Every structure is written in C-alpha cells, then in structure tokens.
Amino acid sequence: MQARSALFDLYGDHLRPRGGRAAVAALVRLLAPLGIAAPAVRTAVSRMVRQGWLHPLRLPTGPGYGITPKAARRLDAAGARIYRTPKGSTAEAAWDGRFDLITLDPPQHRGARARLVANLGFLGYGAIDPSTWIAPRPGEGVDALLAEAGVRFDRFSASHVAGGGSLVSRAWDLDEIGAAYEQFVARLTPVVSGIGPGTDDERAYAARFTLVHAWRAFLFRDPQLPQELLPQRWPGTAAAAFFDRHAGRLRPAADRYVDQCLHS
User: Fold this and answer.
1) Exposure pattern of 163-185 as b/e (b: 16+ CB <10 Å)?
2) Least packed by Cβ within 10 Å: which of 29, 105, 146, 232?
3) 14 pLDDT above the threshold of 50
4) What is the DSSP code (8-state) at residue 94?
C-alpha cells in the first residue's frame, strides 16, 4: 500500500467527517498499523501539498495538514460511490439510453496523459480509442477536469442504435472487472473474517482500512454501468454486499482507534 494512496483513504474515510485535518504525528500513528513508515508519510504529505490536495496548518496538538476545497470535492465524490449513497449510486438510477461522448486531443506528455486517463476513469469514462471516451452518464466536473488538463475537447450526448452492448465491450473489459470483484472477495475474506468482538481496535482498524483501500480501486475500474448494460449475475453485486457487511461491522472499532490516535 503506497503512502499517498493510503492518505487519500485516511482523509476520505476517517478525517473528512472529523473536519478534514490532522496533526502530522497523528497521521504517522494512523498509518503505522498498515506498515507505512513515518518518512514515507511525510514525503507523501509534501507531494500532496504540491499537488494542491493538502495545505499546512497549525493545530493545538502541533503542525498538521488539512484538505483543500479541491480535495474535499474529490473525497466527497469518492465517498458517495464507495458507500453508494443516493448521490453516488449512479448505477441504480434509471438510464435514459444515452451515452456521454467526448472527443479530445490527448496530452503529448506521458505523465499528463496518464493522469488524464486515470481521472477520466475515475469519473466513469472508458476509451474507445485514445481520443474518444464514453460514459453511461455525464461525469460530475468532467468539463473542469478537461479544462484543467489543457486539452481541446468536444462533448456529445449520443444513443447507440444497437443498444450499446458492442460499444460497452470496446470501452471496458467486463470479464476482467468481474473477475477482479471475485478476487477481491477471495482475497479480503481471510483479512476480515478473523476480526471479531474480542479483537483489539488497532487490528480491526487495519483490517477495515485494507478492505476500504481495496474497494476504492474499483472507482477507477468499474464505470458503474446501468443494469441494462451489465451481464447477468454480475459479480460486482455480491462484492458490494460483502464490502457493506464488513465495512459496517468493523466501523465502530475503527472509529475508536482513529479517535484515540487523534487525541493522543
């Protein structure tokens, strides 16, 4: 688990509801059970400041970092999708049969191109080719994202005369995504199944953090297609039920550990 990715999870899942800020010492304590050392935490924090996700501040317990408005928007959007709240449960909403289609000039720089690909994937877009992207619904903030990336683009609302199945298979490998959901359940079952009422809070926190971290990866892979475009017996349905059950079960112990670390 990389420190930068773990910090996004930490701020989004635990610190955002607590004001979106924490002392550096608390960040180090909270990532230690995941095997992330203090130097890696500090390096990742500095990088996130440069990228505009965090800003330094002074707290009663010492120097710390809070989330920026840009980070708050991203974390709120991710949280809504992770827990499939009414704002984030786009796959459950009625689909009007139309796709959001974007044609763009890809960035020439490889790093900028990779960031754009990841960000479009997070918003639910899949690539037909490097210049053409589709999503089953408009991605929230996609115009601002493309403008910030400095690319020329056009957006269209379009319907597919054959229903869209062939288009979906070109943009996303649903067999691969479905297999990843099955692997998620198989890999995380031993992590969470051994955590019970007698388990100490730190172990429960680490297990839940690992669960959420693994689930969060699907935000960049699964476009949350409407039911009409999914295969029968979609593995993502069972995986979501597994996640919800154990994330909810382990939440009280994880919250206690977070509060302990924040106030130590």
Assistant:
1) ebeebbeebbebeebbebbeebe
2) 232
3) yes
4) P
Q: What share of the chain is helix, strand, coil (3-state, %, to 5)?
A: 60, 15, 25
pLDDT at res. 88: 46
Report the distance separating Cα 137 and Cα 223, nearest Å: 10
Do residues 188 and 238 lie in contact, with contact meaning Cβ atoms separated by under 8 Å?
no
Residue 95 pLDDT exceeds 90: no
pTM: 0.85
- What CATH number labels 173-262? 1.20.58
pLDDT exceeds cutoff 90 at 165: no
Kindly list the distances between the CA atom of residue 23 and the CA atoms of 38, 65, 71, 255, in Å, as whole numbers in the listed order.
13, 6, 17, 17
Pick the CATH number of 3-73 from 3.30.565.10, 1.20.1260.10, 3.40.980.10, 1.10.10.10: 1.10.10.10
Q: ∠ CA(21), CA(83), CA(234), 5° rounding? A: 145
CA dist 229 to 158, 170, 188, 226, Å? 15, 13, 27, 6
Q: In terms of Cα–Cα distance, which of 99, 143, 89 is closest to 120?
A: 143
Please compute the mean of the pLDDT values over residues 25-33 and round it to a whole number: 96
Domain range summary for the chain, segments of one domain joined by +: 3-73, 98-162, 173-262
Architecture of the CATH domain 98-162: 2-Layer Sandwich (3.30)
- Say if residues 131 and 137 touch (Cβ distance below 8 Å): no
Largest Cα–Cα distance in the chain? 61
